[in-house]
Write a structure and sequence with these properties.
- This protein is α+β, with helices and mostly antiparallel strands.
- It is 27% helix and 21% strand.
- It has 10 helices and 11 strands.
- A hairpin with a 4-residue loop joins strand 2 and strand 3.
- Helix 4 packs parallel to helix 8.
- The longest helix has 12 residues.
Length: 312
């Protein structure tokens, strides 16, 4: 009995259990299996399982721009004799362990649509597609970026199971590049907005002492914003007794950055609850919008990144 003699439901169930490499191998068997194995139905699960936590709306938008770029299409058309390959993802070339020769590779690739979920997955897996995301504690834990999260472009290295990050230039500085960034330091941007735009906070009236937040901060007006972890503290006039605390009724919110030593100018700042926009100066930097952290997973992730010693 051939596997192709199975009814559609059990056959699809078997294919659904295969990891990506084996699903690619199965696609080599015959045209019938090839049609099934390149289906978005199977690859969407693989995409979400491996990449879902670090791919946000910005990454999906960038992918659509990437595949529709005339340069992208022209460059791949020049690399192949097959006329239909202008619309086929070229990443199959990197899967040399799966495809035995150029003829086999061309036949298989011709069925792989450029905008398919499979091509998206392979683009990420082989590091040919740089996608936007955010990196915690950038530049290998540089002391100036501890407990912050900055936008970057990333590509994956399957050999090291880590990423290379390109950070946009800060002011007149060149692009910073960091290698071997582990998965646990990467996240999808929580807000689909440019790092150069101020996030308009919409929940400051609900913020109270003990709440965990992220706040935008940039060194000067030329820099992009990063997100910095902070905890809402008490006013100096409050002794911290929750039974008598009225800090949540005040127009002033105290933000504490407890990774810095007491007395440090970076330890604490205050913002206006009612009309907060960007505040700051060229010496201390500029504080922007605020996100209140409501999910325990987000808070725990920041705590795992806590520095081993208090910063000055």
């Amino acid at each position: 009995m051939s596997i192709l003699d199975l009814p559609d439901l059990p056959l699809d169930y078997i294919l659904d259990l295969l990891p990506p490499a084996e699903l690619c191998s199965m696609a080599r068997v015959c045209s019938s299996l090839r049609e099934r194995c390149v289906s978005n139905h199977f690859w969407e699960k693989h995409l979400m399982t491996k990449w879902g936590n670090i791919l946000g709306p910005a990454a999906h938008k960038e992918w659509q721009c990437y595949i529709s770029s005339p340069y992208y299409l022209d460059s791949h058309h020049q690399q192949t004799r097959h006329p239909g390959m202008a619309k086929i993802i070229s990443l199959i070339r990197s899967l040399s362990t799966i495809f035995q020769d150029d003829n086999q590779r061309g036949i298989y690739a011709s069925s792989l649509l450029l905008d398919s979920t499979m091509s998206f997955y392979l683009s990420l897996e082989t590091g040919r597609f740089w996608f936007p995301a955010q990196v915690y504690n950038r530049e290998n834990g540089h002391v100036g970026f501890m407990l912050s999260c900055y936008d970057a472009e990333l590509c994956y290295d399957t050999h090291t199971n880590a990423f290379q990050a390109r950070y946009p230039p800060h002011g007149r500085r060149a692009i910073a590049v960091e290698k071997d960034v582990p998965w646990e330091r990467i996240r999808a941007a929580p807000i689909d907005a440019s790092p150069h735009h101020l996030h308009i906070s919409d929940s400051l009236r609900e913020v109270k002492p003990g709440d965990h937040i992220e706040i935008q901060w940039r060194r000067n007006k030329e820099f992009p914003y990063g997100w910095w972890y902070s905890v809402v503290g008490h006013l100096e006039s409050c002794d911290g007794n929750l039974n008598y605390c009225h800090c949540h009724n005040s127009d002033i919110i105290v933000l504490e950055f407890n990774q810095y030593t007491i007395g440090s100018r970076w330890r604490k700042t205050m913002i206006n609850r009612i009309d907060h926009r960007e505040k700051g100066n060229e010496e201390d930097g500029f504080y922007g919008g605020i996100r209140k952290l409501n999910r325990k997973e987000e808070i725990e992730r920041w705590k795992r990144l806590w520095p081993s010693s208090i910063l000055e």
